[in-house]
Amino acid sequence: MTALFAVATSFLWGLADFGGGLLTRRTPALTVVVVSQSIAAVVLGVIVLVTGAWSETGPRLWFAVAAGLVGPVAMLAFYKALALGPMGVVSPLGSIGVAVPVGVGLALGERPGPMQFVGIAVAVAGVVLAGGPHFRGAPVQRQAVLLTLLAAFGFGAVMALIAASSSTLTGLFLALFVQRVTNVAAGGAALCVSVRRGGVAPPRVAWRWLPAFAFVGLADVAANGTYALAAQRGPVVVAAVLASLYPVVTALAARGFLRERLRGVQAAGAGLALLGSMLLATG
Question: Which of 20, 103, 201, 238 has the fewest C-beta atoms lying within 10 Å of its C-beta?
Fold first, then answer.
């Protein structure tokens, strides 16, 4: 079940990142974060009311609050980096943040087996190779790289914090709701400060784009949920590495929808990532 939930996480995050990157090319990144997370917060609020998850309140929710404060910074940086592109570099670099939850798992005493260590190395190599061709192409803006690294470690911190925020399914619903409310509050405050300091007010969001915002927000929150379930049911090290395969999904989505060409090394990277995930799952 750990492998299943973690792979689902990589799939959902990959599609959410692809959608968020596209929206950021049309709308300011902060607007994408606030609108998409607001929709997710409303949906989660309904789920919390229906399931009675309010009864799960406790001190562990502070981890969710912390994740909610770190998350908008990471998402804002990542969406801006995706807009600067190319996605083939930004997305694989974003997976570096897996070092945070892996480090937490090792610090807590987790020790993967020999085959799982091999799987980790193969999977990480595959993710890096998935973006390899672009390093020989047009130069990547330094700002894009710095923003991606900031986002990566922010995402890693969110993974570790959300995994520690609950121990039950209903508790997870409440933790994700608190995280999203904090996301919206932090993002909204940043918008207000930006406008008051003379920044350009965010444009109105066209109604026709709301389904896209909803997809990005709900896919992101679903990925957080499946990752938390994966981390609760198995080694955090395994869950974190499998969940970090999302750049492969982003690259494949870019190939399918934007007709971005996948060169041989990218295809090889995707194959290695798949092989690594199989070794992790069976190790």
Answer: 201
